[in-house]
Amino acid sequence: MAMEAPHQYPGKLTFRVVITCIMAATGGLIFGYDHGVSGGVTSMDSFLKEFFPSVYEQESNVKPSANQYCKFNSQILTLFTSSLYLSALVAGLGASTITRIMGRRATMIVGGLFFVSGTLFNGLADGIWMLIVGRLLLGFGIGCANQSVPIYLSEMAPYKYRGGLNMCFQLSITIGIFVANLFNYYFAKILNGQGWRLSLGLGAIPAVIFVVGSLCLPDSPSSLVARGRHEAARQELVKIRGTTDIEAELKDIITASEALENVKHPWKTLLERKYRPQLVFAVCIPFFQQFTGLNVITFYAPILFRTIGFGPTASLMSAVIIGSFKPVSTLISIFVVDKFGRRTLFLEGGAQMLICQIIMTIAIAVTFGTSGNPGQLPKWYAVVIVGVICVYVAGFAWSWGPLGWLVPSEIFPLEIRPACQSITVGVNMTCTFFIAQFFTAMLCHMKFGLFLFFGGFVVIMTIFIYKLFPETKGVPLEEMHKEWQKHPIWGKFLDAGRADEKDSK
Ligand code: BGC
After folding, report:
1. How far apart are CA 33 and CA 391, in angstroms?
2. What is one cellular component GO term in this UniProt entry (predicted)?
3. Which is the most buried residue in 43, 139, 326, 360, by most CB within 10 A?
4. Distance of CA 289 from the midpoint of ligand 1 (Å)
């Protein structure tokens, strides 16, 4: 079947669009900061002594664990990290309604307010309950921000630059993680062991920037049209595209929003067969992103390093070195994603991560076996492990990291966009929770095999992309549905659905 080429909308990359996207992407900064901060804090002795004395005794050899792999194994300790993702899951689902009815910007403001209150609870905590409540509040913020910011960015960006601009979200996530690693390293040694309060409390700074920034942002043209404000959408399009020649794009947004008017129940609608490709990706992309195993490193690098024999300071320093690879790799991705496309990055990143996972498994297995008693570790060993983890992290940070948020935000048609994005956030948070909560138990039971476990998923996800993902580079959002039709597997699936429908009429 002959297919027409996608529309070429005029318009350029305006200052307004760049500033707007950078501002919105600060939502990622807080997400990243909260991701990065907990691992370091939970490896600080003063923090463990105050809130988790039994883990402290086990880890500091007062009551040693029989197996080196198991010395941080405490479900209460991991609950401190993971509780955030439970509330993010709930908030992500609820946020779809705010995003649809009140706009993307409103959801960002609500998210920012949760962030501010969560950091205050954590920084001032004098009992586990305050720590957990703080993490839950932060989670509500993350659910709201991750639901609204990626779709906002994709809707504001000119389609030619959508990949790069959307990835500013991931760039700020990685900067947030890096800053948290750095703070943990410095704060671990100050304030008589109370430095963790600064680590947790300073998240308030990006949170305030995000609230103020969101208050100043305009709503996206798609969101304005979806709420019947066509004239405001026209004026905003003129400003962000830097041209008055916006009628073609506005017309397509209006057409897309007509489909929205027929959708009374977005959650039910997205189960229709014609939306199956989008639904499959809404679930699989975040699932696979988390089952690359990257967050084992993000959350627990310091714990992992202490497990394999590094000292406390070396562990925190190694986390800083690894953390610095993420923003740099994501920056590279920003510059190449709209040139090489999403598929190339997915496939290359997958291969790179797999090779590193195999090397890590062998390196840890050879030194530790299953007993986990390391003895004196040679220096070259530490350098190899940290080096391989850096290459692995770089592979993630230019592929599944940013694409895990970009791809869902660009493939959902307007009528089901908020609901689908909520699914993506929900699945992401559920899987993040799973890994955050059960990592120490998995390490204790699977030992070095843990890295192969995630390596197996990397193989599956790479084949999945190769077979099922159509390239989305340079395709306007309103034309995306045609890409599924052109795809050899999805095209047949959709045709078969239409034929069935005709027969039943
Ligand atoms: C993921 C996070 C991850 C981060 C690391 C994000 O895209 O959703 O779970 O920690 O990237 O760079």
Report:
1. 22
2. membrane
3. 326
4. 8
Distance CA 400, CA 394 (A): 10
Instruction: Write out pLDDT tens, residues 91-111.
Output: 888 888 888 888 888 999 999
Higher model confidence: residue 262 or residue 177? Answer: 177
Which of the listed residues 31, 35, 399 should we mutate to test ligand 1's pocket, taking the one with most ligand atoms within 8 A of CB? 35
Q: How far is CA 183 from CA 29, 45, 78, 178, 205, in A?
A: 14, 16, 20, 9, 13
Residue ranges lining ligand 1, Cβ < 6 Å: 35, 170, 173-174, 177, 289, 294-295, 298, 326, 397, 401, 404-405, 428, 432
- The first and second tokens of residue 493, run together, are 């699936």
- Assess if CATH 3.30.830.10 describes domain 15-500: no
pLDDT digits (tens, 9 = 90+) for 136-150: 999 999 999 988 888
pLDDT of residue 332: 95
DSSP for 482-495 reads HHHHHSHHHHHHHH
* Interval between CA 401 and ligand 1 midpoint (Å): 5
How remote is the CA of residue 456 from the centroid of ligand 1, in Å? 19
Q: Which of 28-37, 258-267, 408-417, 463-472 has the lowest mean pLDDT?
A: 258-267
Higher pLDDT, 407 or 41: 407
